[in-house]
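User: We ran a pulldown and think these components assemble together. Before we commit to crystallization trials, I'd like a predicted model of the whole complex to look at. Sequences follow.
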Amino acid sequence: MISTSEAGRSTAARAGAVPVVVISARAALRVRQGYPLVARLEVTTPPAGAAEVVWLVERKGAREQLLGSALWCPRGPIAARVLAREPVALERELLRQRIAAADARRQALFAGALPARNAYRVVHGEADLLPGLFVDRYADAAVLQTATAAMDAHEAEIAEVLVETLGVATVVCRDDGSARDLEELPRKKGILRAAGPPTAAAGSLMVRFDDAGSPMEADLLADRKTGSFLDQQENHACAADYARRLHPGGRALDAFCYHGGFALALARAGLSVLACDEDPQAIGRARHNARLGAVQVDFAVHNAFDLLRSLEAAGRRFDVVVLDPPALAKRGLKGPGGPSGAAMRAYKELNLRALRLLAPGGLLVSCSCSGRVSATDFGAMLDDAARDVGRPLQILERRGAGRDHPGLCCMPESEYLKCWLLRAVD
Amino acid sequence: MISTSEAGRSTAARAGAVPVVVISARAALRVRQGYPLVARLEVTTPPAGAAEVVWLVERKGAREQLLGSALWCPRGPIAARVLAREPVALERELLRQRIAAADARRQALFAGALPARNAYRVVHGEADLLPGLFVDRYADAAVLQTATAAMDAHEAEIAEVLVETLGVATVVCRDDGSARDLEELPRKKGILRAAGPPTAAAGSLMVRFDDAGSPMEADLLADRKTGSFLDQQENHACAADYARRLHPGGRALDAFCYHGGFALALARAGLSVLACDEDPQAIGRARHNARLGAVQVDFAVHNAFDLLRSLEAAGRRFDVVVLDPPALAKRGLKGPGGPSGAAMRAYKELNLRALRLLAPGGLLVSCSCSGRVSATDFGAMLDDAARDVGRPLQILERRGAGRDHPGLCCMPESEYLKCWLLRAVD
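Assistant: Here's a predicted model for the assembly, 852 residues in total across the polymer chains.
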């Protein structure tokens, strides 16, 4: 909470260069309560000209109360993203402090982990007090993504800070995702800091890292997201741990294997794994990763819906089935309120078919990475599939993204990943 | 799903002694979909006389379709609890098979755990296909609880099966909880099978077991629930693991310590722990448990609300605060729809005060064991407390009861425990 004296001081200091943005009483209350976003509809007075960091104030009669410093977003439905309760600038020292603190939080979480985590999310936006900035580390490379104009403008500086703070040699920007569309930022990607002269083909930057005990390779310039789905690493390890205990030597199916995160972990846990993806390139990389880790996995190019149908028709059964589909709810959205019926029907079909393929006592690992599908939606869909299959199912665990991708309290949109583990009781 | 031929066969077999219960089409649909409870309001034709196991049927014109075998509940709002899709009797062999299968599921989950789990829930009611039966194991003793008339009538037989299946020497019944009130079953407790001649005072049966690495003692006849809160064991271990990583050598507060589950685990993780409970007897036992494990904990008898207020007034701060209150939502219920406002205000006051006591970067371990408080209610309450304290909080993990207390899919009332881990970002 900003004290009156601080507010007074800052109002005086405002004679300087920091533009002021007046917001509604309702938005002011939410900011005071810790919600870090201000909708454009709540802005009463925008900054006079171009602005990067602004001071959010609430006006009560002739009085102004400073609420905090925020990044100004010139375009899109979000107008400001709170940076601090006190007056701060988006300076190198602030970036350095906050990135170092975010990394120290991960180092503490992973202390003593074996094998040591060398790939993890370093900065997770608002939850690390760095709105619109996301940084993933892969061994000696860092990949950053910015989703807001001010952070985008500071990318070169952020790259320097990452080299200095994390000791990485390479920094890549992967600003080619849909998160940029909200503020109408152009999509782009490239190498911001290189370790040396380019050694690979243009448009490609391979890195080797560890994922739940499996050596993996990712192309930081070409693969999805920042190169891999680091948010699933702890779930890969967890699913493999369950599988090792519950179904030693059993049969597993990974219907959307991508580069092999779940499949390789399950194979290392001693299961016999069939892993499919409809993208031949993904299967190629997954095969390569399996060779790197010297594990045996049966890979095949298949559309998951067709695959599940044909396995069922063939009478195949599995002790473990993993469903980690791409965000189905992105397709065919109906308004901002939630996932479309079509998306939820697709999730349900997948899960119903997976449940039918489970051997007695089998384990279903069911994921959704769509932020539009709430945990409540996801649970209702799974209940629905369970009712259709008419099989009793224990809910062993409801997991989300790994702890290096924490949600921010009071900001439900900061969470998106579900990874639930269900066990057939028969 | 029951095939027509099976249904035909069973209708023929019904010439025997099994009473038939006709239920509504709506209830029949839910039973087909795996929901294991039938409300009395959904019963069209109850059994003619006294009944233990009945056959649930749906009547469609002149046709009857068998839905499954169920335990008949002569009293209370629930009339039947589904036992199987096929015709079965509540016989020793069925009990033996299902108890053995339930125990085997736990053995698989805990395989290789160090130290070995010698106290865990063996049977968790409907989620283990044993409606109304709960069994906890403590080393060489088992404690059973029944919440439905038919299981209650079979307690002597169940005790024999537990001795035979689990190899325990002692079996205790703790039918002195409120779960029995639903079916108007009398509250009682006692020793069903004794290892030898009584060695302790009447009304007391001490057992030693391991809880998250701490040796503990419980009185299986006198302590709460079945003697301990086994559903929190995995959360004790998890909280200690976070504390060890995030705050090595730090200061912890356990405001409702009972017999020391969280406090001892935190002390073993190297933290300096202040542990309080308003019950002097609980503190006595917790002290005893600390001596057993040779760990140092600062214990005190305090009401948690007063304690949190006075610690705040004294300017004390803690790196870890644990709130594991008794079910506040039992007090002052308002209708069946959810927790009362008074209960939620009490939860919020506790959590707000705990958040104020957190040192920078501190960890809050916040629990609710009330089934009336849904995860959604609990999250809204925590958001509310976070907004009032105005401190950014990462949500590291949302945990429930241990995996030996699994929920049953489609039966939300099978889940009750929340244990969420939040980290202050400052």
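Chain B has eleven helices and 21 strands. That may be worth checking against your pulldown data before setting up trials.

User: Thanks, that helps.
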